[in-house]
Design brief:
elongated; 4-stranded mixed beta sheet; 5-stranded mixed beta sheet
Length: about 325
């Protein structure tokens, strides 16, 4: 709720020739909007202690600056300056106000420099999200290749599962994300970049371990280790099993495919997983011949969201890697 401050009390301070009547109604929650345009002017007058010299620095008429300072005092209901002919000095209230305004304007300067630096074409920042399974090889190779032509661009890297990254896109925390399945949402733009084969991973002492290929239906009686609900790979696993005619009996759920591979090696189940960055002992990885077991990898961004130059460059680079995103095995 907004509360109005209504004061008819005249203000005076030593050195003022006239009282400052305070008659304005100012909503307490709108101080920033009311005062911000005049804060830099106030600092200039306070520093010069002379309205004419401050007006020359600001490139504005002295009369306009004088009226602006009078209006500032009027809105605040506080005398900030004591007038001494052509010069002014800060009152106690003015000194208190100046200290805080200085800090506030410094923060604005820092914020402006930060966003300008992030948008710099040569050395700006890209906030890039990707799946955990993309982190060990795919993303480092992508960034290495991109920085051949853009050596100073900085990256803020975020690893997460697909739904969490989509929410961070919507919140403005990410510029782009690599995810699977490729999202089909009205507020997003997404492009398919590549596909990755999934394999049925079994313990090396499992009866199926002597095989090289398998139809997924043959694993209908097995216990599965899978990612938790909400992960894209879990949705793909459930869909492929349904296509093969069964619902997987889930023994363990986790958040990381390599942890699941470790559970398989321990004999705790089988899993439908993407290929590992490095071979894992204790497991055998079988090619699934039916149904076609792949997951599509795509890049997504928020529709209508303007790109900074470094984001636009990296997006163009990613789109140029269609069919060559992954190190295929």
């Amino acid at each position: 709720m907004l509360h109005e401050r209504r004061s008819q009390r005249p203000l005076s301070s030593p050195g003022n020739e006239k009282d400052i009547p305070v008659t304005a109604d100012v909503e307490a929650d709108s101080w920033a909007a009311t005062l911000t345009p005049r804060l830099a002017q106030f600092v200039a007058v306070a520093r010069h202690e002379h309205v004419t010299r401050a007006a020359q620095q600001l490139g504005m008429p002295q009369s306009t600056l004088s009226r602006s300072m009078a209006r500032l005092e009027h809105d605040l209901g506080v005398a900030l300056f004591a007038r001494h002919g052509r010069t002014v000095s800060l009152t106690a209230a003015g000194r208190t106000f100046l200290a805080t305004v200085d800090r506030a304007l410094s923060e604005v300067d820092r914020a402006a420099e930060s966003v300008r630096a992030d948008a710099d074409p040569a050395a700006g920042k890209v906030a890039f999200g990707f799946l955990h399974t993309m982190g060990s090889e795919t993303v480092p190779e992508l960034i290495r290749a991109f920085r051949t032509d853009h050596p100073r661009v900085r990256f803020q890297l975020v690893q997460n599962y697909g739904e969490a990254m989509i929410e961070r896109l919507r919140a403005g925390d990410l510029d782009l994300c690599l995810t699977s399945p490729v999202p089909d949402e009205p507020d997003l733009v997404s492009r398919r970049l590549d596909e990755q084969k999934l394999r049925l991973v079994v313990p090396d002492d499992h009866p199926l371990a002597t095989r090289k290929r398998i139809r997924l239906a043959e694993a209908a009686g097995e216990l599965f280790v899978t990612l938790e609900p909400g992960y894209g790979l879990r949705r793909i696993t459930d869909a492929l099993c349904a296509e093969a005619g069964f619902a997987p009996k889930v023994a363990f759920e986790g958040e990381d495919p390599e942890t699941l591979r470790g559970l398989v090696a321990a004999g705790l189940g089988v899993g439908l997983l993407p290929p590992p960055a490095v071979p894992r002992p204790g497991v055998v990885e079988l090619t699934v011949t039916a149904p076609r077991a792949v997951r599509e990898i795509g890049v997504a961004w928020l529709d209508g969201h303007p790109d900074t130059p470094p984001v636009a460059a990296f997006k163009k680079f990613l789109l140029s890697r269609r069919g060559q995103l992954l190190l295929h095995r």
